[in-house]
Amino acid sequence: MKTEVLPYPPLVKTLWPHRTLARDLALILAGSLLVALAARISIPLPFTPVPITGQTLAILLVGAALGSRLGFLSLLAYLAEGAMGLPVFAGGTGGLAKILGPTGGFLLAFPLAAGLVGLLVERFGLDRSFPGTLLAMLAGNALLYLVGLPWLAAWLMGAGKFAGTGALLAMGLFPFIPGDLVKAVVAALVLPSAWKVLGRR
Q1: Which of 22, 92, 113, 184 is the most buried (most CB within 10 A)?
Q2: DSSP 3-state helix, strand, coil percentages of the chain (rounded to 5)?
Q3: Cβ contacts of residue 28 below 8 Å, gap of 6+?
Q4: Helix (H, G, I), strand (E, B) or coil at 53
Q5: pLDDT tens column, 60-101
Q6: For residues 144 and 128, is the Cβ–Cβ distance under 8 A?
Q7: 183, 111 in Cβ contact below 8 A?
Q8: CB neighbours (10 Å) of residue 1?
Q9: In a 10 Å sphere around its CB, with 0-12 CB exposed, 13-18 middle and 19+ buried, how is residue 158 labelled?
Q10: Which residue windows are transmembrane per the record (predicted)?
Q11: What is the mean pLDDT of the chain?
Q12: Distance, CA of 100 to CA of 95 (rounded, Å)
């Protein structure tokens, strides 16, 4: 007899279990605003159009806390806000030109990364332990680069500035690895701690 494996609820379903349309809309908006606030932390680098920002940590936390569906929709709402010109992107910028620019691939990958982290949480409960949360965060980060780097390469080619794979990685990957590891560790400390406070495993 086959035993059914029940999904793990994301954090929000434990804190706010009664699902309504108003609840979902509020959570989607709250998640998009959290990412917008994190985007205010922006450090431009002189050798690349890709800045160091606080967005990544917020995106992955939103995905883990809200789950795959609401996490994805929250980041989709974030992109829509930015496309309409609201100053929600890195450094308080906005506009469709930012999505079409060199960092557009990373921006478009935000909903996918949040959805992936949410899916890992729901299917495997990875946010319950430090190693699991760290793995989920690193998977979300990897997806950002899988989409963002080819987009950046295409943009550089179009601008006549593409100088090879090594230069691309130096502009869009290597400088960000230390910060991404720190963010992943922070998330891996925050989420399991939240579950312990709730008395859940």
Answers
A1: 113
A2: 70, 5, 25
A3: 66, 70, 73, 74, 77
A4: strand
A5: 999 999 999 999 999 999 999 999 999 999 989 999 999 999
A6: no
A7: no
A8: 2
A9: exposed
A10: 25-45, 57-79, 99-121, 133-156, 168-191
A11: 92
A12: 9
- Angle 24-25-28 from CA coordinates, rounded to 5°: 85
Contact 120, 71 (CB under 8 A): no
> Cα separation of 127 and 187, whole Å?
9
For residue 122, give the amino acid letter. Answer: E
Residue 185: count of CB within 10 angstroms of its CB: 14
CA 157 to CA 47: how far, in whole Å? 16
Cα–Cα separations (whole angstroms), residue 90 to 36, 41, 98, 138: 8, 7, 10, 21
Task: Tell me the C-alpha distance between 108 and 145, whole Å.
Answer: 11
Only one residue has tokens 């794979």, namely 165
Per the CB < 8 A criterion, the answer to whether 180 and 141 are in contact is yes
Give residue 62's identity as a one-letter amino acid code: V
Residue range 158-192, pLDDT digits in tens? 999 999 999 999 999 999 999 999 999 998 899 99
Q: Judge whether residue 5 has pLDDT over 70.
A: no
| Closest of 10, 14, 5 to residue 121, by C-alpha | 10
Report the chain's C-alpha Rg in angstroms: 17
